[in-house]
Amino acid sequence: MIEVKQLTRVFNKKQDTGFGIRNVSFNIADGDIVAFVGDNGAGKTTTIKAIFGEVHLQSGMVTIDGHDLHKNNNLQQLSFFPDSNNIPMNMKVDEYVQYLCAANGISHEEYFTNSIEIYELLELEAHRNKRIRELSAGLKKRAIMASVLIRKPKYIFLDEPTANLDVESKIEFIDILKELNHFGVTILITSHIIEELQEIANHLVLISKGRIVYDAPFDNRTEKMIDIYRKYSNPKKINLTPLKNVYKGGVM
Ligand SMILES: Nc1ncnc2c1ncn2[C@@H]1O[C@H](COP(=O)(O)OP(=O)(O)OP(=O)(O)O)[C@@H](O)[C@H]1O
């Protein structure tokens, strides 16, 4: 179990109005697929980076099975699937994967054996010696997925893994996540495509303006994530008057 406790990071001095996250707390039980949902700028990436120790916190801590996540190599049980802009573009795919394996205590033998299977799964074999910046958006996501899967982590945190993917690749990624969960991998995933989260999540955490506004188990057979989002995230209703003013005389 991962316990996220009272994480606070505000990015300017005005604690009341500054952007960031405030007292973010929620638990991730082993075996869960947590949908972490919020609008642009709500604080999802900041929270995930804070969990991985990549954001300096003003307060809060994260534990794994009751122990500090950031001590005794505990963090190696987790793997982060970052946004494609946050990966080293000049590295070759295989260099990137090997680097992350080495940094997370994976032996060269394990990297070698697993990489053969995972490159085959993700159809990356022909691209492993290409620089990441040369890859299409979809292939970059596959390279990141390879770096995650080869390490066989117990927990995976995915920040918009399906953004920019075509429909077929999205379905493949979701199928991979479902299968990983059957193998006992615990998952936290952010996405703006709520339909795909509806399909796989069994726990929903909503964040709005840096605060958790909803945190509960989710049953996709009886609940609609979009309805919970509308109720708790309080999305602003767009003022359509300017559009009506432009179009009131009819179209060209
Ligand atoms: N290093 C930083 N310096 C200043 N402000 C930051 C920094 N990192 C994040 N923020 C601000 O904190 C808020 C939360 O950003 P974050 O990237 O966590 O949102 P998000 O929910 O992941 O959004 P998106 O869906 O657009 O990716 C935003 O207003 C963002 O501008």
Automatic annotation (TrEMBL):
A Pfam family of the record is: ABC_tran
Descriptive protein name: ABC transporter domain-containing protein
What are the ABC transporter domain coordinates in residue numbering? 2-234
**Assigned keywords, A-Z:** ATP-binding, Nucleotide-binding, Transport
The record's PROSITE patterns line, in alphabetical order, gives: ABC_TRANSPORTER_2
Q: Which InterPro entries match?
A: AAA+_ATPase (IPR003593), ABC_transporter-like_ATP-bd (IPR003439), ABC_transporter_ATP-binding (IPR050763), P-loop_NTPase (IPR027417)
Q: What GO molecular function terms would the record report? A: ATP binding; ATP hydrolysis activity
**Keyword Ligase applies:** no
Give yes or no: UniProt keyword Nucleotide-binding.
yes
- What species is this protein from? Zophobas morio
Reading the lineage from the top rank, the first entry is Eukaryota
Lineage from the top down?
Eukaryota, Metazoa, Ecdysozoa, Arthropoda, Hexapoda
Q: Hey, which family's this protein in?
A: Belongs to the ABC transporter superfamily.
